[in-house]
Amino acid sequence: MMTGKRWIILVVVIICGFILGRLAFRAFLNLLMGGTLFGGNFL
Hints:
- The chain is mainly α and 43 residues long.
- It contains one helix and no strands.
- The longest helix has 30 residues, at 4-33.
């Protein structure tokens, strides 16, 4: 049986995973494009 606290933890983990996944995806695209993820070309 899932308690309220468990549901909250689950939602927080899903949101964190979604945000980290989007950041990783953007970083990957930036590497492909030779882009500027951090406001400037740091290479």
